[in-house]
Amino acid sequence: MDNKLKQSETIVLKRSQIKPADYNPRSITNEARKALKKNIKENGIIGGMVWNKQTGNLVSGHQKLNIADEVNKYEAGNDYEIKVEVIDVGLKKEKELNVFFNSKAVQGEMDYKKLAQIFPDIDAVLAGLDDVDVSMIEVELPQTDHIEIPSFEPQEEKKINAEYEKSISQELSNAKHTSEASIHQMERKDAEELTPEEKKAKIKEIKEKVKENAVLQGDPYFTVSFSDYDAKAMFLEYLGFDPEDKFIKGEELQEKMEEVYAG
Fold it and tell me: pLDDT (tens digit, 9 = 90+) per residue, 224-235?
């Protein structure tokens, strides 16, 4: 039986034949780009490169093309061949498809219970998981399973060095609350000369000092998980929110809860 759905044609073009769409609204963080580049260098470019025959514009795959340009040194005049899927549409339809391909709404949601089961078998970075995903995986892990969740932090020694440097920076940023003698004493030993035990002790000491005067800093969010959708919907409806809400401002949530308790 023939496929009733139209399928795109795949061809090979010279890079110089492809124009990145100047209207493309999708951006990417430095960390996400590093993860994408690592995946591409290990697995190659797999899917996602869509080119419009009518305009010569790239419709989907801008980040992948950008990384391919970097690896192949395209800016230095090195034209190279790249495989794309071809569409033949007007500019309006092209823009609609560009947004569609980049829309998270049509990409589905992650089932973290299933993801928790396969997590030990995959490389989190190559799979494109971030710290929020890992936090959700930890929530969904069965209590009987002993699955180690690898950290995104450096290994132990590097972690200690990184935390030491961070603590030093925090202390120096609060220098107006700390005597100059204290700072000089802290800088007396270079980080590389300290043993891991000395660094841990120094980190503890600095953190105590920072707590006295520093303004708290960190991620302005946390994740709440329910046992199932019904429990989530009941909670949100009770507070007057839409059960389909996925993101709620903390201040708004606090205000709603205060109203409910006051009533």
Answer: 888 788 888 888
How many of the other CB atoms lie within 10 Å of CB of 10?
10
Q: Which residues contact 200 (CB under 8 A, 6 or more apart)?
A: 160
Per-residue 3-state assignment (H helix, E strand, C coil) for the chain: CCCCCCCCEEEEEEHHHCEECCCCCCCCCHHHHHHHHHHHHHHCCCCCCEEECCCCEEEECHHHHHHHHHHHCHHHCCCCEEEEEEECCCHHHHHHHHHHHHCHHHCCCCCHHHHHHHHHHCCCCCCCCCHHHHHHHHHHCCCCCCCCCCCCCCCHHHHHHHHHHHHHHHHHHCHHHCCHHHHHHHHCCCHHHCCHHHHHHHHHHHHHHHHHHCCCCCCCCCCCCCCCHHHHHHHHHHCCCCCCCCCCCHHHHHHHHHHHHHC
Instruction: Specify burial of residue 95 (Cβ count, 10 A radius: 0-12, 13-18, 19+).
Output: middle
CB atoms within 10 A of CB 62: 19
- Which distant-in-sequence residues (6+ apart) come within 8 Å of 219 by Cβ? none
Beta bridge partners of 85: 10, 50
d(CA 261, CA 151): 39
Using the predicted structure, report yes or no on whether residue 68 has a pLDDT greater than 70. yes
pTM of the predicted model, to two decimals?
Answer: 0.51
Q: Convert the pLDDT of each residue in 202-226 to its tens digit.
A: 666 655 654 555 445 556 667 788 8
